[in-house]
Write a structure and sequence with these properties.
This protein is α+β, with helices and mostly antiparallel strands. Helix content is 18%, strand content 43%.
Length: 110
Amino acid sequence: MPLIEVTEPAAARIRSLLGKEDKLDTHGLRVRVVGGGCSGLRYELAFDAEIGEADTELEVGGVRVIVDEKSALYLAGTTLNFVDTLQESGFKMENPNASTTCGCGESFNA
């Protein structure tokens, strides 16, 4: 099972955002799990150029993805998607490790 998968719509959106900031060649998408939210844990997505000793760096869907050691425990098998419809727009995590999620989809419990 891969640590994290990135769908083509998500990869295209990441490339677009990195390109707008002129960071396509220097930065990757850092995916973190941090405490917070109504279900206990929440996702954090940010662009980062720093790779720590305990980080895993992957090339997924044509983009660099950086995951720290602690977050990797919660993210194994997760799919990152991007949706853009009339009802919603943004990145969505499909995490098989989430036992419960909040109504808004911003946080989860594992």
